[in-house]
Amino acid sequence: MSLRCAGLFISKELSASSQLATQFRNLNLTSMRQAHFLKNSPNAALNKTLLDRYRHLETPKDRVQATYLWIDGTGENIRLKDRVLNKVPSGVEDLPNWQYDGSSTYQASGENSDTTLIPRAMYRDPFKPGKNDLLVMCDTYSADGKPTPSNKRAACQQAMEKVADQEPWFGIEQEYTLLDVEGRPFGWPEGGFPAPQGPYYCGVGADRVYARDLVEAHAIACLYAGIDFAGTNAEVMPAQWEYQVGPSTGLKASDDLWVSRYILQRIAEEYGIVVTFDPKPMDGPWNGAGAHHNFSTKAMRGEGGMKVIEDAIKKLSKHQERHIRAYDPKEGKDNERRLVGRLETSSIDKFSWGIANRGSSVRIPRGVATAGKGYFEDRRPSSNCDPYAVCNALVRTCLLDE
């Protein structure tokens, strides 16, 4: 059997000594590539220790630095700006609304560009020195007071309020890929490819895992912030990782996921590494990246819950097109590259489900089937999905029968 990589065929029948030499050569190229990249990355070249000289300066106790976060008009990128508050807020309701130039974020025209930020959730800020400094997740509103097109949170909140008595829980598995500034997966040999997939998933070793320290820093920062952070693992493609948030009730998992994405990208800035949530960053025999959503209700988690799960899956089977449109920011165009019916994905055109089947649209974990209750995993959402849109679609189809 042979492996096709960028039009070149690498014979599997290489001798053992030739394979070993290739591995050492790739490792050397990787090390040289990383050293060259870090040396020439503007962010990584900065001396980070200089900031510590200022972090220890005493600031007024009644002043709080608040970093307002929002989703821009692309539906997949975070923007932010900071403001200083004159008192420590006791809750999100104490935070003032704010405005920004929506014409610079693909959300308004220059003639009427003021766009409003309304704070919805707040977190401890792992990047600021003050113990009261905050990250503030906001949603966005146009000049007419209506949600901007990229504000999927408003509709999601309406749905969650209608089904609050059913206690919907969400757990989200966020996959992502690390790149250098030239767009090459981080740690991949220059001008070539690493060995085929197989040894990298949950792997250990310098030839299998890249940038673990960044991943662990992200986990610590998310826990500090107050995110329901559940864990991390190296993924199937080298330079690809996953972390999980939840399970959380209602909107919190979606809020947490957006804030955790921001924290990840901020930490990656310091390492001089680029984070991409593209669902298919590398063509060819490499796994894509998803954001699997694990969903349950009080009835699904209770005795006899398997029947409730199966009923919900039947409803999902009737709305494949609707959910595909909701599951990536480009209404299915990004997922077309990922959901191809192989490499642990289902077909974008056909709904399927199964027990412990990672090639299906919806998977019921083996443990859930054995217990007869629990949750199901929707494997269709892309890694760059808006979790508000995904959770909204799940609730409206499964619980509101829309």
UniProtKB/TrEMBL annotation:
Enzyme class: ligase
EC number of this enzyme: 6.3.1.2
InterPro entries for the chain: Gln_synt_N, Gln_synt_N_sf, Gln_synth/guanido_kin_cat_dom, Gln_synth_cat_dom, Gln_synth_gly_rich_site, Gln_synth_N_conserv_site, Glutamine_Synthetase
Record flagged with keyword Ligase: yes
Gene Ontology CC annotations of this record: cytoplasm
UniProt keyword Phosphoprotein, yes or no: no
Stretches assigned to coiled coil: none
Single biological process term from Gene Ontology: glutamine biosynthetic process
Protein name stated in the entry: Glutamine synthetase
Gene field: GLNA1
